[in-house]
Each structure stands twice: as C-alpha cells, then as structure tokens.
C-alpha cells in the first residue's frame, strides 16, 4: 500500500512516538489524582508537553496550553466559548467544517457571519476585509491552509487586521502545525487550535489550544479536574478551567515525542522534502489529458497537497480505482470543505486529494504518477 492521505492523518510515525505511547501505557496513571509514582509520571509528561508546545508555537503562559482530543474540539471550545448573541465574525470560504459548523451553530444563537471570498488565481481576497467589518465584529476565525487545495492564508496579514480593530484572532492550524513555523505572539493569534495526529506526528485523539494571556474562554465541558472538588463550577485558572476529566496521557506522551522529532529533524527539512515530492508528481501529471488540478501550485509557500479530478469521473470512482488497481491511498469526495468546493465549482464531482509525508519515497510517488498516466490514457 502506498499511503498518500497524510492530510487526513499521518499514518507512519517516528519510532519514538510508538515507543513513547507503549511506555506510557505501561507506566503512567491518572495525572494529578493522587501521590503515587505513576500519577506523578503522568503529571510530569503532561507539564513537559505543555512547555514544549508553548515553545513550539511561541505562546504563553504554559498554563494556557490546553489539551483536547483534536482540532475540532479545540475550535468548538474557542468559538462557542468566545462568542455570544449579537457578535459578528469574519471567516473565509477556505474553512473546514470544524470551523464552519461551530460558526453555523452560533449563528442559530444570534451570531452574525461574513466570509472572505477566494479565487484560484488570487487566493483570498484580503482587500475585502475592511468592507466586511461591522460595529459588532468580535473575531476573525480562519484556517492557516486549505485542507482541500493546500493554499495558505497569510496569517500575518489577518493578524494585523485583527489587531488593528481589536478583534479576537482564532486560527485553525490543522494542516500547518508541524509543517510551517507558527508564531502566536508575532502574528497576534488569540487562540491557536491544533491537532496532534497529522503533521505533528502524534497519535489520534490528541490536540490542543494555545491561548494568549488575557483571553477569556468559557468552558464547553464540565467535570472533574482533580482540584477544587467542592467548587460547583470549573476552576477559574487554566488549564483546569478548560480541561474536564482524565487527559489522554498515553497520546500526549506520543505527541511529545512527535514534536521532539520535528524539532530535532528540522521543520524546514521535513517541509522541503514533502513539497519536493508534491512538485515531482504535479510536474509529471499537470499536462496529462483529462487532468484538472485545483489551487495555486505556482506559489511556493503551500501545504504538500495535490488536489485534482480526471475527466468527468466521480472523484470516488477515481480514488477507488487508484486503490484497487494500484494500491494507492487517496481521499475523494467533499473533504468537509463545502464553501471551497462551491468556489472551485466541483460540488457534485468532488475531488481526489494526494497529500504527502516526508516518509514517502520517490519510488512511491513515481508509482502514483504511472497510475495517473494509465488512467489518463484509458480515458
């Protein structure tokens, strides 16, 4: 099997991640619930991972690094915990449903929404930001990169706009955390939401938020924290304010190992290889008969994603053919990005997404190229 669906989840992890999870399962207990060694080991791992992620994303303070099970949970906490009836939000058509559905839920509660348009040629139309601003605008909520095309959002520009108008700036870094440097302080990110199982190379069931000092978020979940047990509400201070119940310390141990691997290997080294593999395939197939590639592949700063269609075939049929005949794993369909599919005019057809890891080989990419050459020739 040739795995080219890394934008969904990174299947191959560093050996250190597997080792860390297995060790944690055999040696760690419930963090902060008692005084025995296994509990202390869990607490130490959790704290050290908070420290590591805070440094990795240039956030702070450490207590404002909150663990969740994925980006979707993080975004729900950030969006539902920051907005209320009468607020207005500016977002983009590049968003994943992990942003859109919480926003739509808040719209039903009286929050107003505006979406910044996108075109393949020019990307997001930043010049229209000012026209979307209203007196009641509370926040800018946007992705760092499209999970569909790999096109990126200029977070520095969006952050400047948010800072200029005193807005919250909530960012979905699902596709970029571990691929590109993210500087929460420099870009004025109020709440960064990330997942651990993609380019951070951690296990599924891990994710989190890095919250800027002074930003208040109402809890989404309520329950045990191991402290202030007689308080009928959640503790006021982070991280306990937003973390109810037992944390996934086994997964967090693996996430720690994944981030350490990235820091040791070098994010630029990883990104350069992934983009090289993507460009290798793009250059080989872009002129094949029947191939339609989506997004701006001429821009060098992008995620290692190649999104395409073949003639008028349904994307699911193409993806199925790639797997059953050639053993190549891709992602077809709607990609949980409805507004982007509308912008790209492929709602019914969907699209086939190839997404690359630095663990992929040139030989694997060449096999994917040959498969597309065959399918193109067969018409």
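-> sequence recovered:
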């Amino acid at each position: 099997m040739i795995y080219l669906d890394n934008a969904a989840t990174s299947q191959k992890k560093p050996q250190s991640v597997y080792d860390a999870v297995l060790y944690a399962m055999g040696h760690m207990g419930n963090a902060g619930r008692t005084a025995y060694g296994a509990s202390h080991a869990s607490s130490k791992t959790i704290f050290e991972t908070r420290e590591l992620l805070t440094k990795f994303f240039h956030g702070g303070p450490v207590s404002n690094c909150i663990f969740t099970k994925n980006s979707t949970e993080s975004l729900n906490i950030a969006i539902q915990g920051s907005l209320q009836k009468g607020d207005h939000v500016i977002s983009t058509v590049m968003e994943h449903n992990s942003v859109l559905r919480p926003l739509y839920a808040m719209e039903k509660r009286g929050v107003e929404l505006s979406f910044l348009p996108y075109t393949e040629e020019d990307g997001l139309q930043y010049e229209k930001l000012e026209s979307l601003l209203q007196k009641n605008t509370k926040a800018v909520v946007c992705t760092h990169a499209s999970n569909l095309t790999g096109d990126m959002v200029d977070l520095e520009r969006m952050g400047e706009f948010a800072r200029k108008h005193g807005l919250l700036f909530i960012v979905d870094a699902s596709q970029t955390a571990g691929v590109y440097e993210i500087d929460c302080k420099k870009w004025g990110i109020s709440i960064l939401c990330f997942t651990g199982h993609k380019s951070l190379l951690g296990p599924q069931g891990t994710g989190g938020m890095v919250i800027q000092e002074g930003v208040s978020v109402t809890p989404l979940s309520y329950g045990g924290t191991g402290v202030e047990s007689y308080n009928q509400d959640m503790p006021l201070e982070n991280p306990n304010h937003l973390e109810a119940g037992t944390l996934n310390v086994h997964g967090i141990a693996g996430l720690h190992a994944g981030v350490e691997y990235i820091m040791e290997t070098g994010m630029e080294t990883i990104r350069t290889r992934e983009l090289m593999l993507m460009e290798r395939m793009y250059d080989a197939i872009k002129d094949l008969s029947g191939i339609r590639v989506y997004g701006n592949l001429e821009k060098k700063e992008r995620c290692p994603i190649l999104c395409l269609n073949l003639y008028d075939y349904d994307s699911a049929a193409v993806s199925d053919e790639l797997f059953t005949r050639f053993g190549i794993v891709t992602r077809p369909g709607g990609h949980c990005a409805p507004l982007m599919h509308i912008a790209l005019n492929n709602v019914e057809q969907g699209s086939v997404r190839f997404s690359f890891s630095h663990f992929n080989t040139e030989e694997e990419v060449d096999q994917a190229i040959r498969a597309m050459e065959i399918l193109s020739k067969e018409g």
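The longest strand covers residues 137-143.
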